Amino acid sequence: MKFQVQPQELLRRITQCQRAISTRTPMPILECIRFDARDGSLTLMATDLELSITTRLACDVMEEGVVVLPATMIGNIFRKLPAAPATVQEKNGVVEITCRDSRFRLQVQNPDEFPILQNVETDEVSEVANDALMRAIQETEFATSIDESKIALTGIYLERRQQSLRFVALDGYRLALHDILLGEGAMDYEKDCIVPKRAMIELSRILDPAETAALRATETHIEVESGDITLSSRLIDKNYIDYEQIISLDHETKVVVDRQSLRDAVERASLLTQAERAHLIKLKVKSDGLYIESNAEIGEVNEYVPLEEMDGEELLIAFNAKYLLDGIRALDSEKLVLTLNGSLNPMIVRPLEDPDHALYLVLPVRIAGE
Questions:
Q1: HSE of 184 in the Cβ direction (CA atoms, 13 Å)?
Q2: How confident is the model at residue 249 (pLDDT cuts 50, 70, 90)?
Q3: 336 near 257, Cβ under 8 Å?
Q4: Please, where are the H alpha helices in the chain?
Q5: pLDDT tens by residue, 31-62
Q6: Does pTM surpass 0.90?
Q7: Cβ(356)–Cβ(322) under 8 Å?
Q8: In the 8-state DSSP scheme, what is residue 109?
């Protein structure tokens, strides 16, 4: 095998593939990247048997072939090479990398030992703009559970509907939901699956927001292809809960508030709760504004946020500050709509600009003596 490539171009692909490599693996071959040079292009692949990332780039291929190289070492080498064409050549189990006056010689592992995961083969495809896909992941992944005894809730529930792609995450304390409307001519089919959180996060990190992605899923795997990158992941083989029973749009109180003002006030109010187990903050919804307070052993804090709109009953409700903040930070909107149905029922937060396509639900904390 022999090919020539620009170091920075190859380094970008190596960095993308490294996201699929686990830091803890009993198999040394899984610490490597597979390089396949043929037909004027170089294909890189890395996997931990649960997640795999494949990426491609055009290059000058003088001799076709396959080599497997340690991901960290090859990444460090190409990170330090000068900005000049680098030649990579394999002979008799040794790879030689030359670039100007630099020369490296590396032992390679047997490429036959590298696991090649099966391709996802299905005619059912969802075409999605990458920026919309990245936003959907951002607005849901934080609400997944970390409780391994509830394995289904550790992933993002992906629900393909007739005209939309829905992302759902919940952990028993809050629920995040985001819908992506599909364009005209989208394939009409329904399917659902649970995608591991790690796969979704890594996907959002390697996507180019200016491009589009094709999503395919079988009973066991999901594959996302965008440009020269393909990510494949095993699915979580469990049943998801009926999350729609949790969501009720009935409300006694509805307010509209500036998102940044609310975020800043809750962040300041939460400063005193960081040493407290419950991270408790109280919200008093009144006709003249939203009052936020927090009490701790070391002191208290009071905040005021003006309301742009108020409809319904005044009330007092309490939340875990972290859970409330997570949703406020994730929703991409200048204004938020808060709907409440008493002090013991969940509060629903939606973006004013796009209320039908994103939603965050957070459970309140019962206030002692109230």
A1: 0
A2: confident
A3: yes
A4: 7-18, 71-80, 130-138, 197-206, 259-269, 321-330
A5: 999 999 999 999 999 999 999 999 999 999 99
A6: yes
A7: no
A8: B
